[in-house]
Amino acid sequence: MHGTGKKEFDIGWVREQFPSLSLQYQRHGSAFLDGPAGTQVPKQVMDAVQYYFLGANANTYGAFLTSRRTNEMIVSARAAMADFFNCDPNEVVFGQNMTTITFALARAIGRELKPGDEIVVTTLDHDANVAPWRALEEKGVVIRQVDIRESDCTLDLDDFKRKITAKTKLVAVGYASNMVGTINPVSEITRLAHAAGALMFIDAVHFAPHGLIDVKAIDCDFLACSPYKFFGPHMGTLYGKREHLEKFKPYKVRPATNTSPECWETGTQVQELIAGIAATVDYIAELGRHCDPAVKNRREALQAAYRATHQYETELMSRLIAGLQTIPGMRIFGITDTKRFEERCSTLSFRLGDHNPTRIATFLGDRGIFTWDGNFYALNLSERLGVEQHGGVLRVGLVHYNTVDEVDRLLAALHEFAAR
Questions:
Q1: pLDDT at residue number 3
Q2: Which long-range contacts (CB under 8 A, 24 or more apart) does 50-57 make?
Q3: CA atoms in the 13 A half-sphere facing the CB of 344
Q4: pLDDT number for residue 7
Q5: In which residue ranges of the chain is pLDDT below 50?
Q6: Of 312, 316, 394, nearest to 352 (Cα)?
Q7: How far from 68 is each of 47, 61, 73, 156, CA to CA, in Å?
Q8: Of 178, 272, 215, 274, whose CA–CA distance to 83 is shortest?
Q9: Which of 80, 181, 295, 348 is the most buried (most CB within 10 A)?
Q10: Nearest Cα residue to 307 out of 318, 322, 295, 319
Q11: Distance (Å, whole) CA 237 – CA 303
């Protein structure tokens, strides 16, 4: 399998970076197909967290060595995430997770809204990009929800155009669905939002492990993602256009700085994990250099990495979907046409006959194949597809450390389950 065309995609090198992939369970090797809920972590991220504790563990802005090192580390981490987003370092905010960041941002934006103002959300989204905006209904904000096309689990763009009006103040949409893998046309939706004078907020949590983010190209106003979904520690990050971070006023304690982006980072941050975020971006860049040694800087290295992993993951997904379609009673949700794979990432969900997804996940888990079942907080979508009352779906998430052998193990196990 090939990545950029510069070098063959080196899955052996990739797997060597992730110590946890060697985990054994009941004499089985572990197949981590649970990435959408949180990916495994490369050793250099673990090392960065450990080094922080050993050589820089202090709070910020003190007049001594370890505090100065912490300040320097945070500056370095902002620069890394700025390369990841393609923005300026002072447009990067760190926080507990995407959900907490989004609630805080929604409260701040909500201070400027009045009864009758409208916010548009979608049926396709994780509830972390729905509930924070719906909370503003308490002050009279109207929430309008865009529907999907059930046949392929894509957003109904005609409905989108109807739902955005002169009263729309913000549009909140996911970059990719964490249940069915659909990649939304976020640049087009951003243009629709801006044409109506509305802000654009993107939940990129599920897209970040699979595709390159470019906030300048999209021209969104805010974009949030969680490093633990793209091979890093359990934290969240936010991109915000500088003028918006300076305009809106976050809730904070009085002594905290009023300077952006720090004023958005409530309380003392989990600084050891911020060190891990910087190492996460550097891991992806290192992968890019391994795929294409000719890259000149970190942003180019990130571009090379995502070119390589996108093609590799697409080949794995093609193999998986083709195999699933041979199993009697299989219903795959979302896009399955290979000609449309640019519209989806390598996450898919399915139901197998009337079997409860938890039973299937347990059967697979006993064989060292780790998958998720349920609704994955995509509650609106689970209800819309009519599966919520039946236990949701079984979800398989492929990332660039997964292998052909793991896909084949999964397919063999599902054939075994279906034959029981």
A1: 41
A2: 51/275, 52/271, 52/272, 52/275, 53/272, 56/271, 56/275, 57/271, 57/272
A3: 27
A4: 67
A5: 1-5
A6: 394
A7: 20, 7, 9, 51
A8: 215
A9: 181
A10: 295
A11: 20
State residue 362's pLDDT score: 98
Q: Which two tokens stand for residue 311?
A: 């093609």
Question: Angle, to 10 degrees, between the axis of helix 43-55 and the axis of helix 65-85?
Answer: 150
pLDDT on residue 420: 84
The token pair at 384 is 């819309």
Please write the tens of the pLDDT for every residue from 99-143. Answer: 999 999 999 999 999 999 999 999 999 999 999 999 999 999 999
With a CB cutoff of 8 Å and minimum separation 6, the contacts of 113 are 136, 139, 141, 169
Write down the pLDDT at residue 1: 39
CA separation for the pair 366, 364 (Å, rounded): 5
What pLDDT was estimated at residue 6?
56
Q: How many Å apart are CA 212 and CA 225, to the nearest integer? A: 12
> Rounded to whole angstroms, how far apart are CA atoms 178 and 162?
25
Tell me how crowded residue 272 is: count the other CB atoms within 10 A of its CB: 18
- Taken in order 13, 19, 21, 25, is the CA torsion positive or negative? positive
CB-based contacts of 273: which residues, under 8 Å, 6+ apart? 49, 227, 233, 234, 235
How far is C-alpha 335 from the geometric centre of its chain's CA atoms?
19
The span from the CA of 279 to the CA of 108, in Å, is 30
- Residue pair 375/348 in contact (Cβ under 8 Å)? The answer is no
Tokens of 333: 């949700």
Q: What values do phi and psi take at 397, rounded to 5?
A: -120, 120
Distance CA 66, CA 74 (A): 12
CB-based contacts of 180, cutoff 8 Å, min separation 6: 124, 153, 333, 334, 335, 344, 347, 348, 349, 381
